[in-house]
Amino acid sequence: MELTQLTQEIYAVSKRLEKASTALYKLGDEKAETERVYRLRLTQEILTLKAEGMPATLISDVARGNVSDLRFQRDAAEARYKAAIESLGALKSQLSALQSILKYQESMG
Question: Among 50, 72, 78, 90, which lies 20 to 30 A Cα-Cα from 108?
């Protein structure tokens, strides 16, 4: 790999890392927000079922079932966040490898 091509590749990966870190922040915010909404709605559902006189042994399961769409959204947001972290790690590894190649080529110089 030519030195010019290698430095361009390092620059491109650095830019991708920058974009990925911004996206990770947004995904983290989305993850937290979906968790907040889910817990709030679950609490409201539990209180509603309790007020309606549902037996206490059933409230938890029924409430979770009633807000299962919100739980799915929460879990999906968490999965996207974790995938973004993995992707960011892969980019860091790629950048490290490119930097190692660059150092090796410069030392052979």
Answer: 90
- Tokens standing for residue 69: 């769409």
Note the pTM of the prediction, 2 decimals: 0.82
CA gap 99, 30 in Å, rounded: 33
Six token digits for residue 1? 């790999």
C-alpha dist (Å) from residue 14 to 2, 8, 23, 27, 93: 18, 10, 14, 20, 11
Which of the 8 DSSP states describes residue 1? -
Alpha-carbon dihedral 40, 45, 50, 54, rounded to 10 degrees: -150
- Per-residue burial over 85-104, b if 16 or more Cβ lie within 10 Å, else e, is eeebeebeebbeebeeebee
